[in-house]
Amino acid sequence: MHNTSRVADEPYPTLLREKGFNAFPSLCFLDADGNVLVKQGERSVKGFAATLQRLQRLQRIDELRKQAASGGADAQRDLFLAELELGSLRADEIRARMDKLHLDDATRARVDRHLVDAELRELAARQRELGEAAFGDAVAAIAKSGRRPTDAMATPFWQTTLTWCSTHGEPQLAQTAHDELLKRPLAAAVKRRYDEQLEQARAAAKK
After folding, report:
1. Which of 148, 199, 154 is CA-nearest to residue 180?
2. Is the separation of the CB atoms in 200 and 170 below 8 Å?
3. Among 74, 80, 122, 138, which has the minimal tally of Cβ within 10 Å of its Cβ?
4. pLDDT of amino acid 82
């Protein structure tokens, strides 16, 4: 647990942000040296349980690391894909390892979704520094390029994209974001807000 109340003598005042979070409740598991082993996706009881399940896969990760140490290409690939599932790799690490491994098109597409997740986490960690406008621009640029996150990051990704479209136009992208968000169970008030943002995006495109 971390004290986020900004007490004057708090020894780790920026710990939440240092670990890649900008909101709470947030959950991650650390090793004895304070390195992040795994972070949760959705901030819910279900998400927390899924995080624990991913952590339990670390035993398999350790076995793969031993195999990968011998230099086998298959073991290197399997280790990379397993670590992706944990969500603990930085975007630059993912890019570097993608370039070194010979991945088929389907696997590269799968990896790119995890890369988008990592990019989104890093943008979220810098959201206050970037400001809302620049943060929205960055997320919208990913969406406009046709790249997509995994299901774990889909809701905040499409929420940010739809909000951006509501002021910048891009009605086709807004429709995609709207449709993706409506695939999930929603309260009536939330659905109305998404409907309104879609209409705002259409109106903004006509100006």
Report:
1. 154
2. no
3. 74
4. 85
| Cα 205 to Cα 203: distance, rounded to the nearest angstrom | 5
Residue numbers in the chain where pLDDT is lower than 70: 1-4, 24, 41, 58-59
Report which secondary-structure segment, H or E, holds 11.
Answer: none
Joined together, the tokens standing for residue 126 give 């810098």
DSSP 15-81: HHHHTT--SSS--EEE-TTS-EEEE-SSSSHHHHHHHHHHHHTHHHHHHHHHHHTTT-HHHHHHHHH
State how far the Cα of 80 lies from the Cα of 97, in Å rounded to an integer. Answer: 8
Percentage of the chain exceeding pLDDT 90: 51
Please write the tens of the pLDDT for every residue from 144-183.
999 999 998 999 999 999 999 999 999 999 999 999 999 9
Query: What's the pTM?
Result: 0.71
Structure tokens at 133: 């406008």
3-state SS class at 183: coil
Report which of 73, 94, 98, 69 is spatially closest to residue 84, judged by C-alpha positions: 94
Q: Which of 166, 116, 121 is nearest to 141 (CA)?
A: 116
Contact 159, 171 (CB under 8 A): no
Domain locations in the chain? 143-207
